[in-house]
Amino acid sequence: MNIRHRIILLVVLSLTAMLSIGGYAVLQSRWNASEVRIVTEGIVPSALASADLVAHLKDVQLTTMELVSAPDAKLALQTEDKLKTDKAALKAAIEQQASQATSDTQRGLVVQAKESLDNYFAAIDDATRFKLSNQKEMAEAALFGAVGEYQREIQSVVETLRIEKNRSKDGAITALNNSLAQTVTGISAAALTALAILAAVGGMLYRQVVRPIGRMQSMMTEIASSQDFSRRLPVEREDEIGRSIVAFNTMLAKIEESSAQLRQKTADIQTMLQNMPQGILTIADGNRVHPEYSVFLESIFETQAIAGRDMMELVFSGTNLGSDLLSQIEAVGGACIGEDAMNFEFNAHLLPGEIEKTLADGRVKILDLNWSPITDADGNTVRLLLCVRDVTELRKLAAEANEQKRELEIIGEILAVSQEKFHEFIAGALKFVDENEALIRQRDELQTGTIDRLFRNMHTIKGNARTYGLLHLTNLVHEAEQTYEALRRPRPDIAWDQEQLLGELNGVRAEVERYARINEVSLGRKGPGRRGGVERYLMVDREQIQHTLQRLETVNTGNMRELVAARDEVHRVLRLLGTESISHVLSGIFDSLPSLARELGKVAPMVTIDDNGYVVRSQAGSLLKNVFMHLIRNAVDHGLETVDERMAAGKPLAGLISLDANVRDGQFQLALRDDGRGLALARIRRIAVNKGLIGEDAQLDDVTTARLIFQAGFSTASHVTEVSGRGVGMDAVLDFVKREHGRIEIMFLDDAEGADFRQFQIVVCLPDSFAVRVDIGPDARDADLPVAEKALQAAV
Amino acid sequence: MAQVLVVDDSSTVRNEVCDFLKANGLTVSAAVDGRDGLDKLKADPGIKLVVSDVNMPNMDGLTMAEKIRGEQRNASVNIIMLTTENSPAMKERGKAAGVKGWIVKPFNGPAVVGSLKKLVG
């Protein structure tokens, strides 16, 4: 049963109860009214009439006595008329009683009264007759005799009737009173019963409607205040309340879903703010930084005090912006926040896109700033969103890339000039620069002769540079020349400023020296280029230079990764200019080994080279060739055994020679070893004694003994072969190396101190400037060395 | 009949703004202070936009804005303030006077012309 039905039931019950009580009361009232009428209109008048009967009887008796005692006949006759009247009244009264008798007792009494009345009236008639016949004594005797007797008789009957009537009246009234009391009691009882039923139904309604609603309301309030939308109200009924609860629960589920989504979104945003490598903040009214910002911002500004800070102070303090610009920026914040979004359009151009910020420790960061408005539904800007990017590294890289581009262009310019002419140009340019410096230093004021000289010198440098197409230099020289030109005018608009002129000149000198340095270091074209007959210089693939330049020109300078890749690539190209791979340098030697081995009756050895990613400067090529020609041929000649010996020793027929190149402890070390019999220490010792290099009884350790081979004139070969012992011994090899500030070490690889043969390696140590590492940069591991080499075709 | 009324006591700013707006196809009239601005506005019902400086002699820009707002017939007139600084009190006053926008000086035409044209209708 639902609540509507319950309420209808309550109303129906109430109406029914009221109607019942009302109907009962009406019925009772009508019945009581008829009872009252019976009593008031029947019983009470009848009782009163019974009292009248006694009075009528007395009237008759008195009239009779008056007649009997009348003094004369005339009066007696008059009295007789009255008597007749009284008698008739008495008779009528008795008849009335007969008709109003309500019980057998009353009716019996009326019959008795009638009989007595007849006798009474007969006795009165007798007495009257005697009186009218003047028999006064007879009349009196009759009066006191029969009349009196019957009068007493009738009187007694009438009295009894009166009493009976009164008793009947009292009874009727009592009955009436009882009936009324009963009515009141009945109505009260009915009303109480109805009240009780209504109270019960009301109580039921309260329990089943009001209480659940109250409970529902308190639970709803609790959920609303706790915001715990995972809770549900129990559904214990199927009425309106039950359906309301189901609807409420559905709503809770929706809210829970929405709030979960909201939570997820908030968490997403928080995660982004926590982890994105971007500085993001929002600026609220009063240029205050909103507490929610990306954590990365802390590493950009190097502070954790960000929330609530003044944007002007956090972002713009210590920047390269002037106070006027700062005040503009400050005003823009005020003009935009809380105003129509249009105001952002009005003023956004005043917000800087890039700033240089000096930190507390003096470091300067270049920050890229990106501004956008956050608008509300009404199109008003509520906050400004500021994305901060630290582009210091990016700008540095771009500058590096630019510098590399310049260098590449300069290389291109230099390569177009023959080495000899270039050398002459540099020497001449430096001479003119020196002369200009001397001229400027001598004068502290403008002099026509001097300025003409200065101008002529600079003009010559410019002319030459232009002739050779050295454009970078030309531009710089042109500026210096323009300054002199300005000073040469009749009324110069600039003053002679020694310091400024020297500064400018130093710029030119630096650029000339830079050209010279690139020529020497990067291109390996030191000197005029004719010395020694065979000119050694690099042929750089112009296409490669063009390609590299293009790579630099098209690189996206806003993309760190791309910029780094381009920089590394160009860096590698630049580093590798003027270098050769070790295998390339020594290839001639390796090519000659098969024929050498054949001459010696040996199988051609296998050669392995591990360059560990190093190449060598072209200048070192000749040295390495000279040194390793000797060392490797020695290894084949003295180290590797003959086929028979190797077979007997259980070694592979082909010997193994390995070369390992690496940079250690600031030295470029090239270690050579072979799998032959080892260093013949006993033999070295014997030869040294024979040649008088050591005494017969000299006690030398193995290392000292081994180093005897570097003594001048020492030769281990038993006979002068075609291979070694051609007068260029190990002493000469050591000499080559020492001239380049290097040394040679012999390092034993076994523990057989004192043995005749010991495994060893010869390590040639050179300054690390001889080596260049190929795989520089993050993508270098994938670098294809042959391709890089292709760019540098070395002409030997 | 002009579309825009430029109010500034500095002839440099006034001319610069006027010339720029004219070059962009708007008809412009100029006033030298707030009082002059009110007179010009009253005389020319075609004006839909007032671009005004804040600090001016005789009557400042905000007072003028308040007086413009006080006239029913000016209901469709938009007001933009040219300013150098921006205090909350100033903004509050401007907002009450129905100031639509704040352009921080220096006036940079190309950046604002689009929005200004929208305000002219």
Describe this structure in words.
The complex is a heterodimer of chains A (796) and B (121). Chain A has 796 residues and is an alpha+beta fold. Chain A has 4 domains: 3-211, Four Helix Bundle (Hemerythrin (Met), subunit A) (Up-down Bundle); 276-390, 2-Layer Sandwich (Beta-Lactamase), CATH 3.30.450.20; 397-575, HPT domain (Four Helix Bundle (Hemerythrin (Met), subunit A), Up-down Bundle), CATH 1.20.120.160; 578-794, Heat Shock Protein 90 (2-Layer Sandwich), CATH 3.30.565. Chain A has 24 helices and 17 strands. Chain A starts with a helix and ends with a strand. Chain B has 121 residues and is of the alpha/beta class. Chain B has one domain: Response regulator (Rossmann fold, 3-Layer(aba) Sandwich). Chain B has a 5-stranded parallel β-sheet with strand order 2-1-3-4-5, with helices on both faces. Chain B is globular and about 35 Å long.
SSE order and pairing:
The complex is a heterodimer of chains A (796) and B (121).
Chain A lengths: L2 H66 L4 H28 L3 H29 L3 H91 L13 H36 L3 E6 L3 E2 L6 H6 L9 H6 L6 H14 L5 H6 L6 E5 L5 E12 L5 E10 L1 H24 L3 H24 L5 H20 L3 H18 L9 H25 L15 E3 L1 H13 L5 H17 L2 E3 H4 L1 H13 L6 E5 L3 E4 H22 L3 H6 L7 E9 L2 E8 L4 E2 H10 L11 H6 L22 H10 L3 E6 L8 E2 L1 E8 L3 E3 L11 H6 L1 E3 L2
Chain B lengths: L3 E4 L3 H13 L4 E4 L2 H10 L5 E5 L7 H9 L8 E6 L4 H9 L2 E6 L4 H12 L1
Parallel strand pairs in B: 1-2, 1-3, 3-4, 4-5
Helix pairs in contact in B: 2-3
Main sheet characteristics of chain B: 5 strands, parallel
Question: In terms of per-residue confidence, which ranges of chain A show pLDDT below 50 for 5 or more consecutive residues?
Answer: 530-537, 717-727, 777-796
CATH 4th-level superfamily of the largest domain in chain A: Histidine kinase-like ATPase, C-terminal domain
- Structural classification of chain A: alpha+beta
The tally of strands of chain B reads 5
What kind of assembly state do the chains in view correspond to? heterodimer
Q: Quickly name the level 1 CATH class of the largest domain in chain A.
A: Alpha Beta
Specify the structural class of chain B.
alpha/beta
**What average pLDDT do the residues of chain A reach?**
84
Overall CATH architecture of chain B: 3-Layer(aba) Sandwich
